[in-house]
Amino acid sequence: xxxxxxxxxxxxxxxxxxxxxxxxxxxxxxxxxxxxxxxxxxxxxxxxxxxxxxxxxxxxxxxxxxxxxxxxxxxxxxxxxxxxxxxxxxxxxxxxxxxxxxxxxxxxxxxxxxxxxxxxxxxxxxxxxxxxxxxxxxxxxxxxxxxxxxxxxxxxxxxxxxxxxxxxxxxxxxxxxxxxxxxxxxxxxxxxxxxxxxxxxxxxxxxxxxxxxxxxxxxxxxxxxxxxxxxxxxxxxxxxxxxxxxxxxxxxxxxxxxxxxxxxxxxxxxxxxxxxxxxxxxxxxxxxxxxxxxxxxxxxxxxxxxxxxxxxxxxxxxxxxxxxxxxxxxxxxxxxxxxxxxxxxxxxxxxxxxxxxxxxxxxxxxxxxxxxxxxxxxxxxxxxxxxxxxxxxxxxxxxxxxxxxxxxxxxxxxxxxxxxxxxxxxxxxxxxxxxxxxxxxxxxxxxxxxxxxxxxxxxxxxxxxxxxxxxxxxxxxxxxxxxxxxxxxxxxxxxxxxxxxxxxxxxxxxxxxxxxxxxxxxxxxxxxxxxxxxxx
Length: 536
Fold this sequence. Notes:
Elements: H1 5-12, E1 28-36, E2 39-47, E3 63-71, E4 83-88, H2 99-111, E5 116-120, H3 132-135, H4 139-147, E6 151-152, E7 155-156, H5 171-185, H6 189-195, E8 196-201, H7 203-213, E9 215-216, E10 219-220, E11 227-231, H8 246-269, H9 284-295, H10 304-310, H11 312-318, H12 326-331, E12 340-341, H13 343-351, E13 366-368, E14 372-374, H14 388-391, E15 397-399, E16 405-406, E17 408-410, H15 416-423, E18 426-427, E19 430-431, H16 439-449, H17 465-469, E20 473-478, E21 498-500, H18 507-510, H19 520-530
Parallel strand pairs: 4-5, 4-8, 8-11, 11-20, 12-16, 20-21
Antiparallel strand pairs: 1-2, 2-3, 3-5, 6-7, 9-10, 13-17, 14-15, 18-19
Helix pairs in contact: 1-8, 2-19, 4-9, 5-7, 8-16, 9-11, 9-15
């Protein structure tokens, strides 16, 4: 049944109704995780039970969880900060995936005399994933836990079996969670409307746009934010202008709503998956491997690549990230299981834009330090080729000498050691990745941005696009990002878009501050904020 997922989702293209209920959250609980370079990071839990209709779920899923970054010498009360940024991560990513950009922005703002905060608010579905293995901080233990049946502290992983309630974790829940956080933690309407900026990375920007256009008891979500920012993503709920087209609305009400409900019911019944199970490269098994590679980074030789290649359940899903040729992709021979790699080289192989086959993961972190050849899977590299949006614009290379121990040469806009640090960050349910990113969320985005506003499902509350468009908005795009293969061709990029030169999709949130002290994404965000903050 998994093979019908995308046709079901694309065919659904729908929307729905229901105004989100008034926040019923209780007092927040915060745990300080670290204080580094004058920036304090806390894990905040806000108790806010899921609707009773959601069905059985772990107790942890009744909390909204987010990371709060603040200057350690700044005010403890967030409403005394000069600005608060609330950001949603990209698809398959968790709260810690924006750790570097959060630090960069706060540091840049501090240099301009402003005390700001950054709150990373992830999709609630991450609560359903068991982070026990990742929390060990040890790559061998984590790999054994998730893929080899090993125990950690007497606990054994139950397998990659996402629970059925994730069928109800979509755009409506995300909008509700952001509304609840803002109105509960920042109760002053005056503060929110002048000093709170809402945004996100990639799909997180799209979800934030939906939040801004959402109807909360007659008030638009955009009224809770002074402005919006999209990092390699758009603050736009109606790409092609179909949401306000009455003919589209008539068609969606007659056709789309039924298709949407059928797709959701298929997820609830188990006929369609609630996550991207079985899809190479983005299945939970493959996504979980990414932070493990970060935990295993280092100059010594690793066996993670060989263990990954020999694991039947993992190899076929993760091999597309690494394979250099079709024979290697189909058989696994002569590649991942045969190469000698240091921990750094294995991490670079999965994430580096000179190796990784999936542009959505690519970061500019350097290249292999031994003999290599151009990859031919799935297509040869071409900077402006027909598949550059999927495969990236850099030349992708594969090792050629099975006897050579490949290390990794640092380079580019991202520091590989800092990326390794970020990948290893875990606090409770919050991590760098979210292996249980839901198909319901994806379905909702397809429906919303296809223009469907039918009353049959959960998206009928998208009523305030005009109010969202009237808000100050910053768009930052990496000019080596996969988004450059789509947005310009559709004429979607605003005239005042800021381009981060040489940045990939992931570089936009992981870029390190260069020697001259100016990181372009943080600088763009800080300039946008300071131009709009009122005087104290």
